[in-house]
Amino acid sequence: MPMDRIQPTSESPSTRLMVLSIECIKGSSRADEWTGDMLQTGDIVEELTIGSSLCVRSPFKHGRSGIQKILHNSFKDKQTSILVRVRRGRDDFSELQACIVPNDSAGKKQYVLRSITDPNYVVGFMDRTESECFDLQASRSDRMVNALERTRLQDGYVTYSWERRMHESLSVSYSSSFLSILLLPKAANEVATRYNDLEDTLARANAWLNSAQATGVPIVFMNIQTESLLTKISGDTASSTVSAGSLSDLSNLANASLYGFEDYHGVDIGVVRSVRLWYAPLGGELPIEIKLKEGDSKLGFSIGRTEEGFIYVSAVDEDDNAPSSRSGLNHLYKEAENASKLLIISRVSNQKVLPWIVSSTGAIRCFDTVSLSQKLSLHRHAKVPIFLHVFLWDRELLASLISAAPIRQRSTSSQPVAPARLALPPEFQLPRQPNDNQIQPLPADAFSESGSVSTDESSSIRTERETAGELSFRFHEFSLSSN
Asked: Is 43 helix (H, G, I), strand (E, B) or coil?
C-alpha cells in the first residue's frame, strides 16, 4: 500500500522561532501608531535599554514572562525609563522612548510601556512566532480599517468655573437674561375638576404677547414650549388616561392639557401640560443708577403696571434737580414716549420684577406696585442708590450709548454694579459692552409688523390704579403720545 508523501512546508525553521513582539494596547491621540515612526502590533523586539546601565538583547530568556520579571525589578528600583528597539520586516528598525508603568488590569507584577511623547500611547509584549509577526505586519492596512470601524468617540466630565463665569460673563451677575412666563391650563369649572385643552393655553399665551406689544411693552417673541408638571389627581379629573403597554392611548394626548397614568387602583399621577413663552426686549436691558442726595424730597418719577403684569415708568418730573433727571431717566422716558413705547422696569437691585406665571384661574402673578414704591421710598430715606434695569426698544440706541460710555467697573459680590456714567445724555448709566459669546435678541427690523405698536391718539395704556401714600409716587393711567 503506497504511503502519502508529506508535503514540505514553505516556512523556514527561522520563521517558526518564538520571538518577543509588540502588542499595541492603547493608541496615541493622533493614531500615530499606524505610521512608521511609532511601534505597531507585530513588531519584533530586538533590544531593551532600561535606565543607563541595563541592556537586554534578543533572544530573550523565557520570552514575555522573563521580560516581565526584568520590568518588575526595574520598577522596584525606580528605573522606569526604557528605550525599545524593534525590527519590522527583515531590515527596517524603529525605536520608542517610554516609561514602565503597572498594568493593574492584567494582575500583579504585570507592566506595560507608556510613551514619553504621547502618554495616551501604551504598548505591551507578547510571545509570537516570527511568521505570525510578519503576517501581522503585512496585514497593516486591513487592521487599520478594522481599527477605524471599532473606534468609538469617548465622552467624559470636565470641571468648569461656574461661579467665576456667572460673575464675569453675565450682564447681571448670577442672573440670566432669559425671560419667560409660564401659563397653566385654565380650569373649565369653578371646582377645577376639568381643564381647557392645550390649544386654549397656547391661544392665551399668544393673546398675552400680542396685548403686551400693543400696549407698548418693547418685547419680541423668542420661543414657546410645553412644560410638564406632575400632580396627584383622581380619575375623573384627567381629560385623558394612559394605560400601561397601550400605544393607542398616546393619540388622545395630542391636545390634552391634563392626563393621568392609570393603575389597578385608578389614576394617581396627573401630568399638567403648561405652556412656557420665551420673550426678549427689543433693544436689550439698560441698567440705570439713581444716586440720592441730602434734601431729595422725592424721586421724581411715577410707576404703574400694565394688565399684562409689567411695571413701567408712567411719568417723570421736569425738575432738573430731581434724582430721576440727574440719572437720565427722564430723558429715556421721553425717548420711549416719542417711540410710542413704555419704559418697562425689568429689575430692581438686580432682582427681576417681571410677570412669571399665570394660574389656572387666569390670574397673572406679578409684582405689586405698592410694595415696590415702599422699597424705592426706603432707598430715598436711607440715601442708598437705586439700581434699575429698563427695557430698550432700539438696539441702535443701545449701541450708541454703549460706544460713548467708558468700561464700567466690576461689581463685588456684596452689592450691585454701579454702571458707568455718560456725558450725553446727562448722567446716563450704561451696561457693559456685550461680548461675542453672549446671545443677544435679534434687531427689531428682523421681525414682522405684527409686533408694531399703533400710534393712534385714542389708544391708551391699560394700567391698574394703586396708591402708596407717598407723594413722590403717583399711579394713574398714562396715554402715549403719537409723536
From this structure: coil
